[in-house]
Structures are given as C-alpha cells and as structure tokens.
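To assess whether ligand presence alters the predicted conformation, the chain was also submitted together with zinc ion. Input:
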Amino acid sequence: MNPLRILFTLLRYLWPGLITLMFLPLAPLARATGGDFAWHTGVLEVWGGVVGKSLKKGIPLFGSVAAITLGHVVAGYSYACIQATRRHERVHVRQFERWGFFFPLVYWLAGTWCFLKGGRWYWDNPFEQEARAAEQRGHASQHLRLIK
Ligand SMILES: [Zn+2]
C-alpha cells in the first residue's frame, strides 16, 4: 500500500473518530447481554443484546430502527438486520467519512431544512435519499445477477 493511501485511510478513520470512539463501548455491552459484534469491511458491526433491544424500542427522532451508523460503528437490532441494511448503512459510513465529527449536525440540519420546506424530516433528508439510492442499485444488481 502506498504511503498516500495509508494517510487517506487514516484520515477517513480519524475525521469521525471521536464519534466512533464514543460508541465503541456498544460492542462489549452487546456481547455481555446476549448480542455480539464483528469487524466487517472496515466497520465494527454490533447487534443484539440490550443494544438491539434499545434500537427496537426506539431512539429520538427516528423511533424504532433496524440499524444505525455511528462513525465506523453500525449497531443493529439483530445480525439479520445488520446484513439487510449493510449497503444502506455503508453509505452513512461514507457520509461520516466525508463530514466527520460534524455529520450528525449536518444531517440534523438537512432534515430540519426539509421539514421546514414542508417535506418529511427523515424520508426527504438528502443523506437518506443517497443511502436509499445505493440500496436500490444493490437490489437492481442482485436481480441482474439472478437473471444471468
Ligand atoms: Zn439511513
């Protein structure tokens, strides 16, 4: 790997690093309460246990969620949820890498802007639209693979 690539990879992790660090304890918490965690394609995936139960119960602004991205940590209700939402959540990981520590604020501002314009805070949020578009492309390519 060339030094410039190593530097960019390091920056991708450091820029949202504080948020990743804040949510790292979810991994041992999930494991200690019946869930688990694993490293997958550069992201720490955490599922089940009290983490999963909390996501199912609901979080502010989102309600009940299957999975959520927090820097380079993705927490999900179950491993099935982690798998089903991986393409979508990886877009949010890239968004965290782009906006770093400021992503939650930028995301919130974008949702609020949509809401003030008469749209839906979550569904019309451009960051969610980007993630859903990637999901759709994934489904389309899966269908093509099945057809071939
Ligand atoms: Zn999303």
